[in-house]
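Board notes (copied after class):
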Amino acid sequence: MDRSPTGGIVDVYAPQPFAFDFQKTVETLQLYRGEIKQPETLIDEINGNVGVGGIDMVVLGTCEFECVAFGSLHEQLLAAWDARDIAHKFKLVCIVHNVNDNAWQKFIAQWARRNAIRILSISEHVAAAFRRSFLISADSPDVSIRSAGYEYIPVDVHVPVLDTAVAVEHQPLRILANAVIQGSFFADRRDYLAIFAELNESLARDPKVWGYNPLSAEHVSYTVDTSLPDLPFRLFLIGSGYIEIPSELANIVVIRDKLSYPEFYKVMSDMDICVPAFSGENLYYDVQASSTFAMAVECSVPILVTERIKNSYTYVKDDRAVVTRPAAMREVEALQALRSRDASYFLQRMEIPPDSPTMHAAEAMMRLGWVRSGEESQTFKQDIWRANDRVVERLLRDL
């Protein structure tokens, strides 16, 4: 990469070619303009210059993967660190996603003992989970763990949001038509079955709200009601894996899998709202970071959330990025209310008392609606980038 004004250099070591045409995104956004080197050359280059101008920081993009998949990488890095004199040591920065993915965590103590490791999470709740874990380790009855200094390991958050070009600008009065669930098609991660069941239930009650005709002997799947002026509702599933779609929803649920990065950004940017679809006991709330939030923010798609979600993914705790539903209102109920601009069915069915906090939350959701302007989305992303810049400064200054 080109030298910065301070004279720093960034080198990238990664297998080539990048999967899913990510190189096109790298080039379009000018994320990196230098030679991409093979990972197996990293140790030789660390050892090739152990003085001034040598590598002084090693960032592992997914520590849960690199420290396990590349066999002896940890031992080689540690040996390289030990071989340097005290004035020319390097820092190891581990980017983490899941505190429960702990096969690599046995290596942390050796780096902590050397005061040579930093943890960089992609979401605040994962960072908090690592901090809690480190405090427990610091109090371990095992003296070899207790003496490593776990409580002093710096833990930061850097949200991976790129400056992608988003051309879609939704009109304030447009009806909500395209919702998306982004992620792997596994029912233990996202509550697809409940979403399908609730969508089927709502369609059976009032298909016209969603833009469809009732089922009939001739049609086992809902068909678009072309007499209506508004676009029909569609639920996009963007990700990978296999999932069976109920026959009734065959014309409503759209699967887009194996997309390249350019294709993904184009499809995602066309969405009106993103639905996390987490189940109540999902690990994404407490120990693991979901890519859904960063991807939606990148593409300027508002995310349908609850207070619980916002308390985990604190970086989206902002009305410019989210649509907040009361937890009593299921995601399909929220989509119906936002699409019809009417939450009365939910309030009546659930017998929500007037002037209750839940009623006020539903009213606030309806008042704000789902449309966010391009300016709102961009200024929100700029706030994230400024926070990321502060994190990078702490890394570079070892603060």
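Comment from the instructor: The chain is about 40% helix and 10% strand. Residues 1-5 have pLDDT under 50 and may be disordered.
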